[in-house]
Amino acid sequence: MDTSIRKLSGEELARLAAVRFDEYRRVTRRVVIAFSLLVMVLWAWDWAFDPANASNTLSLRIAGSVALLIPIISMNRKFGITASGVVLYGVILFIMVIYTLILGLMHNGFVIGLGGSLYIFLGSVLLGLPFSFTLNAIGTAVVTIAPHVIGALIRPEFPHALYITLIWPAGFICVFFHWAAGRMILERLHYRAEIETLAMEDPLTGLLNRRALRHDYIRTRSLAARDNGQLSLIMLDIDNFKSINDMYGHAAGDLVLQELADIMKKTFRTSDSLARIGGEEFVCMMPDTSLEDAVVTGERLRIAVETARVTINDKNGRKLSFTVSLGVTQADPAENLEHLLDRADQAMYLAKSGGRNRLVHIP
To answer: Can you give the residue range of the structural domain that contains 334?
Structure first.
């Protein structure tokens, strides 16, 4: 299966990004808490290297530790995915600035403690998992550059060469990781979305299957009940389909099924749910549609099918025609799908027993 994310539409990418955010924000929350504790624990490092100035760094570490808890609040879908990422990298930048100030307060701090910045890059790699590559790349670039600028401002003897040698490569590696991780995550989510689609789709016609129809019905019925709207359903069956298979072969039968599906797609609205629920049985669920309007649409479908011709893939290029019988009914707001299908099936049975190639409706 091709999982190239370049082939995804903008809408699909947005949906997969939302799934990615939901999956990885739990990890980010745990990492944030661990990182907040680490900021305080590493105060022991200040005491180990410069006991005289360690007391001056405590307030800075407390400020950094508390600030790290802000992303936990912002990691909420209501807050917005991009906004959550901006807040997160704002806090990471704040931590980097805090750490730069701590090193500036300590004796020979930039020489002995600059490598500690790598902890922050390691943390940002894990914290950035819920967000897009673009956001992570921009955030990482800012987090890499800003401490260099601030450190040079507060200390004339700032070790530029050491920073460029140690920290800049870490920033580049971090950006590369976000690119690779982002691609891997989206490809995995794309693959899973494809699997979910296959589970909800009839492979021959591309229409919904019974499982997907049931899912759509629950959602559509709830909306109809809330808005006091109408919901109609059409069930149709290909007349004498067994004879078509026996006379022309199953390959021809598949062409007939595909032709019917194509006619249905052209006849009904994009808001309607079209499904193949059996061998030659199809259903169309029509929200915001009265019984009378559903009958009109169903009759239009019947005529379109009656006039269609299917070319058989044989040496003679024969064409065959087929017809359908339709049953139309309207849903009750409290009715489950099986009861609705049973009533539509009764109407369709009356259409078949009445001579086929006709439509019968039951309120």
So the answer is: 210-362
